Amino acid sequence: MADDAVEDVRDRLKAALWFAVGKIVDEETLRRNRNVTPQFIGALTETVWTQIENVALDLENFSRHAGRTTITTDDVLLLARRNQDLHAIIKDFVDQQKAAKGKNKSKR
Fold it and tell me: What keywords are assigned to this protein (predicted)?
C-alpha cells in the first residue's frame, strides 16, 4: 500500500473512532445530565487511539514470538493477563465459543 493510501485508511479509521466515542459520550452525558466539550471528546479519542495502537503492537509481538503470523485468542488472553476480571470474561467467552463449535461439529 502506498503511504497516501495508508494515511487515508488511518484518517478514516480515526474519524470513525471519533464518531463512535462521540456517540458514547453523548449518550452518557444525556443519561447523567452533564456536558462535555468537543476538546474532551477529541482528547478521549486520542487516548483510545493510542491504546488501540499499543494493544495491536502487543498482539503482533506475542504472535510473532510464538512463531505465528496470525493473532489467536491465546495472544488476547496473554494481553489480558494482568487484569484478572477481564481475563476471566474473555476466557469464559472463548470457552463458550469452543463448546458451541464442538456441538455444531457433533451434529453433522
Answer: DNA damage, DNA repair, DNA-binding
For 17-55, the pLDDT digits (tens) are 999 999 999 999 999 999 999 999 999 999 999 999 999
> 89 in the Ramachandran plot: left (φ > 0), alpha (ψ -120 to 50) or beta?
alpha
Q: How far apart are CA 56 and CA 62, in angstroms?
A: 10
Residue 9 lies in a domain: yes
Please name the residue that has the C-alpha cell 512463531.
67
46 domain-assigned? yes
User: What is the model's pTM?
Assistant: 0.78
Side chain identity at 70, as an amino acid letter? T
Alpha helices in the chain (DSSP H): 3-32, 38-65, 73-79, 84-107
Total of domains in the chain: 1
Whether 19 and 41 have beta carbons less than 8 Å apart is answered as no
Whether residue 107 lies inside any domain: the answer is: no
Residue 33: which domain range?
1-51
Number of residues in the chain: 108
